[in-house]
Amino acid sequence: MSSSRRLGIHCAVLLSALLLQACGGGGAGTGDTPTAATTTTAVTTPAPVANRLTVSTSLFRETALSASGRLSCAVCHTDETAHSTASLVSFPTGGPNMDQQVPRASPSILYLQANRPFNINDNGNPSGGFNWDGRFNSRAQQATGPLLAVNEMANADVAAVARKVRGLSYFNDFVSAFGISAQAGDQLIFDTLLQALETYQQQDPDYLLFNSKYDRFLDGTTTLTAQETRGLNIFNDPNKGNCDSCHTSRIGPGRERPLFTNFRYAALGLPRNSAITANADNNFFDMGLCGPTRTDLTARTDLCGHFKIPTLRNIAITAPYFHNSSIATLTNAVEFYATRDTNPSRWYPTVLAVVDKFNDLPVQFRTNVRRTRPFGQNAGDPPALNSQDIADLVAFLQTLSDERNAAPGAATVP
């Protein structure tokens, strides 16, 4: 759905927004834990949802909020790629001169309404949170990262962001829509901007379309081909793809549509990507939950190498894959799962005649890597998935792409 179309149909947007607020497991979008900053936002007068959405959409696309004047949230999360990294781009670049690499791919930010703040359960297993390492507890809190990161929008501080917001041609619309004074201080302007960016992601219909072929299959209005059906069966088979163990494909207990993620974390032992500038230092390792970007879990060495399990909705249009963009195509990604352990030399370098398996993790943390199906075999063993299985699985995954120019579907299956 294009921005011009979206901005031109306020009545439809209002209806969709009100419907979407009821989705996601009992209002998960409004249940995100606010940050200390966002709790200070004072909304004195309720504003029409459509007006807020119009302003919020503009702010998401606003390049003037960056130090370079060329970077916005939408540059790193494009419509055409399900709000993930732009097509044919492995890593975003930012900074004052747009020449600094962001060393992780931008994940799709769709279908996160049911996500929760980061937590660790009684068994020590993490889930929830936003970003690859879950260090932000809400969409509003997550927005602080790009706004202030030196290699992204590169604002020096809250005051610098507030000055840019005040300079926008639609600043009066912003303060009116969110019920604050035009004379509000820097912190309140900044907090309200965060609220606006969250509002856009909560209320724009594109974020919960639920109108893919698979959704229509669940509704009984279309059928899967024989190949897609085989792929679905492989996806759910614990002895084959076993994909459903992390990327839930089943209808929820309240008839909720599957989101194809359990919002947990996994260490997949991905190959190191030499295109990441920081990887030129052989002593540098991006280990997700245990650092270096996230710093509060460094003692949990059992979590080194764990990254957020993303939704597979729209996976066919979000290449390249994984947090480090190390896998180029969807077929390659499925082949990695199938042959990582049976044919490791395909994925990892050979050093002194030995395959350096899981080479993007320090040696002492390589035991953290997941070895359940479809992994777990020895080199030379038959893989859990043969070439036909891989083709069938890819065919099924392609049914998870939204129809971007069609009306949204319901959040529950009839």
Structure description:
The chain is mainly alpha-helical. The chain folds into two domains: 3-208, Cytochrome c-like domain (Cytochrome Bc1 Complex, Chain D, domain 2), CATH 1.10.760; 213-400, Cytochrome c-like domain (Cytochrome Bc1 Complex, Chain D, domain 2). The chain is 29% helix and 4% strand. The protein has helices at residues 3-7, 10-20, 24-27, 49-60, 73-76, 139-148, 158-166, 171-178, 186-203, 213-219, 226-236, 330-339, 387-397; strands at 93-94, 100-101, 119-120, 126-127, 265-266, 307-308, 350-351, 354-355. It has a two-stranded antiparallel ribbon with strand order 1-2. A two-stranded antiparallel sheet has the order 3-4. Strand 3 and strand 4 form a beta hairpin. Helix 6 packs across helix 9 (186-203). The longest helix is centred in the middle third of the chain and has 18 residues, at 186-203. The chain is globular, with a radius of gyration of 22 Å. It starts with a helix and ends in a 17-residue tail after the last helix. 45% of the residues are buried.
Task: Summarize the structure in short.
The protein is mainly α and 414 residues long.
How much β-strand is present in the residues?
under 5%
The main sheet orders its strands as 1-2
CATH architecture of the largest domain: Orthogonal Bundle
CATH class of the largest domain: Mainly Alpha
Cα end-to-end separation: 24 Å
Query: Helix count, per DSSP?
Result: 13
Q: Report the C-alpha radius of gyration, rounded.
A: 22 Å
Assembly classification: single chain
The low-confidence parts are 1-44
CATH superfamily of the largest domain: Cytochrome c-like domain
Mean pLDDT: 90
Q: Could you say which overall geometry the principal axes of the C-alpha atoms support?
A: globular
Secondary structure tally: strands: 8
- Tell me the domain tally: 2
Q: Report the structural category.
A: mainly alpha
According to CATH, the fold-level topology of the largest domain is Cytochrome Bc1 Complex, Chain D, domain 2
